[in-house]
Amino acid sequence: MDKKGGERLDVLEEEDRARFEAVVLPHLDAAFNLARWLLRSRADAEDVAQDALLRAFRAFGTYRAGNARAWLLQIVRNACFTWLQQHHKDENFSEFNEERMPQVSENPERLAIASSNRQQLTRALEALPASFREILVLRELEGCSYKEISEITSRPIGTVMSSLARARQQLRSALAQPPAKEVRRAL
Amino acid sequence: MPCEFSQNQLHGYLDGELDAVSASEFEKHLGSCPECQRLLAVDESLRKAMRDSMLYERAPRTLRENLFGHSTQQVSMQSPAVRSASWRWLAAAAALVLAVFLGWRQIGHPSGPSATQLAVAALVDAHLRSLQPGHLADVESSDQHTVKPWFDGRLDFAPPVPDFSGDGFPLLGGRLDVVQGRTVAALVYGRRKHIINVFVEKASPVIAWTGSGSTQGYQWIAWQKDAFTLCAVSDVSSADLNTLKDLFLAQ
């Protein structure tokens, strides 16, 4: 059952493990959720999150008391971006054309309907570049403060705010796209 | 021509991240800028939609298992590890009996598992079981007048079943659990994307346990109210659990 070649935390020092479990384990869901949205796949997210957790354990000695969630999420997001690069899914590194989805197409009613639909929201979120997915997930799903996001993504706080502004605009535009196109693509 | 504020400050304002001076500056601007008013409303509703539509995806059971192996399985899932689980039940029962005999009142003993720790471990087990697909609620309803009567005849007491939707803790349903050999009522509440189980049982006159803490990464808080012992278990912050406890106490 060990797809990871049997490397587990239970073979490690009991005391370290207990501390790791108490400090880091509470954020396992956060780690998985971030990976899932960055990689857009539960299966890949599980693999990458597992590797990231093991890496976090090995690096646990360098962790000083502080924000454990931010510390862990930083490791997870770095692992995810590395994975995206290695698997040539680094759409984030290509220039994203922000004019592609013009703001004028925003129809408040359609936006309201689309955003009430989990599937459409998922599609819209997944259509965004990884760095926008990341910042929206951290802010809206994980409830991170700008300071935490800045810590996790190694970006200045001012950049966090302007990135969120653009990410939200992109999400609105993605949601306002007529759904017909998505249906065709899905077929 | 997009307004300059809408590119930046609007978002800091929406996220509660502006300092007082910038916030009041933005508010002043907001009064005279229809575009910012519109965007603020749209982004607010978008945020609500994201949070309400359960986009948050929890770590699958297999991830926990792969990381922690068998030794924590009995805690993190319904597991085939029957032997160790039943040993734990025995230990829990024994500790409880001992506590009763000593008239020992409770709580967080630093060395060795105390009765409280064992009770909490059993409740965390029950919480985790409830998160497995299809286990959350026997009666799924946000209506307290549906959930409360459901318990009639299933328990020898009538648990309080308040709904705190207005305070951000919507009632999602109820369920019966057997915890340490006792049948307890489990009330299920939502907190943003998180699930909170509030376990209710008749208070024992001997072990009236209260307290709070964190076990296996889950927060718990226990309190007494009327003739009941209540214990909330969740992965939300302890501040959120405290709020919920206060809401119950204010009932």
Features:
heterodimer, A: 187 residues, mainly alpha, Rna Polymerase Sigma Factor, Chain: A, Arc Repressor Mutant, subunit A, 2 domains, 10 helices, disordered N terminus, disordered C terminus, B: 251 residues, alpha+beta, Phosphorylase Kinase, domain 1, seven-stranded antiparallel β-sheet
Describe the structure.
The complex is a heterodimer of chains A (187) and B (251). Chain A is mostly helical. Chain A folds into 2 domains: 9-89, Rna Polymerase Sigma Factor, Chain: A, CATH 1.10.1740.10; 95-186, Arc Repressor Mutant, subunit A (Orthogonal Bundle), CATH 1.10.10. Chain A has 10 helices and no strands. Chain A has helices spanning 14-23, 28-39, 42-58, 68-86, 108-115, 118-126, 130-141, 146-153, 157-176, 179-186. Chain A starts with 13 loop residues before the first helix and ends with a helix. The model of chain A is unreliable at 1-6, 92-104 and 180-187 (pLDDT under 50). A 7-stranded antiparallel beta sheet of chain B has the order 1-2-3-4-7-6-5, sandwiched between helices. Chain B folds into 2 domains: 4-52, no CATH class; 61-250, MucB/RseB, C-terminal domain (Phosphorylase Kinase, domain 1). Chain B is elongated, with a radius of gyration of 22 Å. The longest helix of chain B has 21 residues, at 82-102. Chain B has 251 residues and is α+β, with helices and mostly antiparallel strands. Chain B has helices at residues 4-7, 9-14, 20-30, 34-52, 61-68, 73-76, 82-102, 115-131, 144-150, 238-250; strands at 139-140, 171-179, 182-191, 194-202, 211-215, 218-225, 228-234. Mean pLDDT of chain B is 79; it is low at 70-85 and 101-112. Chain B is built from 10 helices and 7 strands. In chain B, a hairpin with a 2-residue loop joins strand 2 (171-179) and strand 3. Chain B is 44% helix and 20% strand. At the A-B interface, helix 2, helix 3, helix 5, helix 6 and helix 7 of A face helix 2, helix 4 and helix 5 of B.
